[in-house]
């Protein structure tokens, strides 16, 4: 029996797929040859998660991979109607990014509360200027996006004594429905977005949303850039509708040198790194190999994306969510 | 019966002592008149905790306040041998600073792990440069100083998934003795000092100490500046014996504009603000008023400093210290 073909969409650094030797033929491809090679692949590993090539190359009715795995949490870059309509299984990297992203958000919350950016700026000027920080314990957060990343952010902030409300698409158990977002955001110190990019989250953080925030609030986006109307956020910051914001994700990445976002007062810009801690590429590679072994043995795969919704639905009763 | 005289050493902003009206005569003094006024005071409130005036003004054998309260955690600036030998009760502001300082330390740990200072520097240059952060969960910390601040730091870092060892003067229950510091520091990612300034902590963080650290370690001081030999820390950073450090306290405060410390690569300088969150002065004032009411009623005071040791000894069995 021939070994299944695992096609890896991967411009440069390679995942550690050595464990597949003898179980699969691993072939690499760039974006340009992807369309030509897809029909011969049993599995597509989208290692270059910054690429839009899959949407463009996906074969309509012809032969196609039976399984596509995205080495990322979000699948918006590769999920096209033809892939959604097909019987190809789509999985994501759920499990790898939750803790790093949650720590990153906790770090931003504390950095804002303790005014660390100002401390660093004053240090450059050799200025000793005492200021009062804020206490994080007892402050209020709204986490938007009740997937595994949003849940982990909720847990970690809760552990810091923050009163956290978690908002999902629909209300269930300890999770608020999206209809509660406005009232919750209106009294929050921190609004954190960890939403996937879907038609209903596209542009959801806009002038109307920022208009309800407290002037002392901060907005943090570690979900997807296109959920934020960036011009609206800039205007809201300029009008002092909120005290600050941090964006780790953007409509267009990488952010160009000429982007006005770099210089907006109160806006902290980081290069889509919140989930990436030392060893993350190895963890992504190991996760794929483990999933491949399940697939090759005919066992059910974890992390299967609901292709209509655009994300992996949470199974509520498997979650141990401390009070929100 | 005449009202007791509460003398407040306070250059400028006044604590909210209105609740003492009718129970005490509240008089204010600057450093210059302190010696002349101390003999007439029943209580001395050292509100200006940056002042060295008490050591200089303390009356030897003459009349003196029966109670001195420091609106600070440390009492090293005012504790002199004559005060130590007297029967005057000395108390501190235990309870006000623990949580803010612990949050500040957690913020520094996360900022270092996520390389936030570099992110801010790159943003100024409009440079999108992805880097990998570190995961805080699973890293190792040593917290030196087993008083209430060190214990709160331990609790908060433990909640972030850090493996924390707490080091005190002597080993007891979940606390390591000072003899374990070297071996623990040698494998720590984070060494955090929350020690009071006493003869045995003066200059304890020196070349010999920094020499045992891992090159990836960071040192954070939120205790007292003089526990660190600053020149030794600078040399250790220059030699890359450790990856970074943050000092919130210094031998001389405020740090002068000409200090070389401002420009040491890897050193984060902040102006003694870790414990000071919005409303802290009010909390200090309220704490004093509450303690005054106990004192005036002849009830025992909390937060009594052991004047030989130089700090408030912890009562171990009152502490709920989660695993270290």
Automatic annotation (TrEMBL), chains A, B:
Give the record's family classification: Belongs to the D-isomer specific 2-hydroxyacid dehydrogenase family.
Q: Which Pfam families match?
A: 2-Hacid_dh, 2-Hacid_dh_C
SUPFAM superfamilies noted in UniProt: Formate/glycerate dehydrogenase catalytic domain-like (SSF52283), NAD(P)-binding Rossmann-fold domains (SSF51735)
Query: Organism source for this protein?
Result: Streptomyces microflavus
Kindly give the InterPro entries that the UniProt entry links to this protein.
D-isomer_2_OHA_DH_cat_dom (IPR006139), D-isomer_DH_NAD-bd (IPR006140), NAD(P)-bd_dom_sf (IPR036291)
Q: Under what name is this protein listed?
A: D-2-hydroxyacid dehydrogenase
Enumerate the spans annotated as D-isomer specific 2-hydroxyacid dehydrogenase NAD-binding domain.
Answer: 107-274
Q: Where are the transmembrane segments?
A: none
Looking up PANTHER family in the UniProt record yields: 2-HACID_DH_C DOMAIN-CONTAINING PROTEIN (PTHR43333), D-ISOMER SPECIFIC 2-HYDROXYACID DEHYDROGENASE NAD-BINDING DOMAIN-CONTAINING PROTEIN (PTHR43333:SF1)
Which UniProt keyword terms apply here? NAD, Oxidoreductase
Every D-isomer specific 2-hydroxyacid dehydrogenase catalytic domain range:
32-305
Q: Which Gene3D superfamilies match?
A: NAD(P)-binding Rossmann-like Domain
């Amino acid at each position: 029996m021939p070994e299944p073909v695992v096609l890896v969409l991967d411009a440069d650094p390679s995942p550690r797929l050595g464990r597949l030797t003898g179980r699969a033929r691993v072939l690499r491809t760039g974006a340009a040859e992807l369309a030509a090679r897809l029909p011969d692949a049993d599995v597509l590993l989208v290692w270059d998660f910054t690429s839009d090539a899959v949407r463009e190359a996906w074969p309509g009715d012809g032969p196609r991979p039976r399984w596509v795995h995205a080495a990322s949490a979000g699948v918006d870059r590769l999920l096209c109607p033809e892939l959604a309509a097909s019987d190809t299984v789509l999985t994501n990297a759920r499990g790898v990014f939750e803790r790093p992203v949650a720590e990153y958000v906790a770090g931003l919350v504390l950095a804002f509360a303790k005014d660390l950016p100002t401390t660093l700026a004053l240090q450059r000027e050799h200025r000793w200027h005492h200021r009062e920080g804020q206490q994080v314990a007892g402050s209020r957060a709204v986490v938007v996006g009740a997937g595994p990343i949003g849940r982990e952010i909720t847990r970690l902030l809760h552990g810091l004594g923050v009163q956290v409300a978690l908002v999902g698409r629909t209300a269930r158990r300890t999770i608020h429905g999206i209809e509660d977002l406005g009232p919750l955001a209106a009294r929050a110190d921190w609004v954190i977005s960890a939403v996937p990019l879907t038609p209903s989250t596209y542009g959801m953080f806009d002038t109307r949303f920022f208009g309800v925030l407290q002037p002392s609030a901060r907005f943090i986006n570690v979900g997807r850039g296109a959920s934020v109307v960036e011009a609206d956020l800039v205007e809201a910051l300029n009008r002092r509708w909120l005290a600050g914001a941090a964006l780790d994700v953007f409509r267009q990445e990488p952010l160009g040198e000429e982007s006005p976002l770099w210089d907006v007062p109160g806006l902290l810009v980081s290069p889509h790194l919140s989930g990436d801690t030392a060893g993350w590429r190895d963890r992504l590679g190991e996760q794929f190999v483990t999933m491949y072994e399940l697939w090759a043995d005919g066992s059910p795969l974890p992390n299967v994306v609901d292709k209509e919704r655009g994300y992996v639905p949470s199974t509520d009763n498997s979650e141990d969510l401390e009070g929100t």
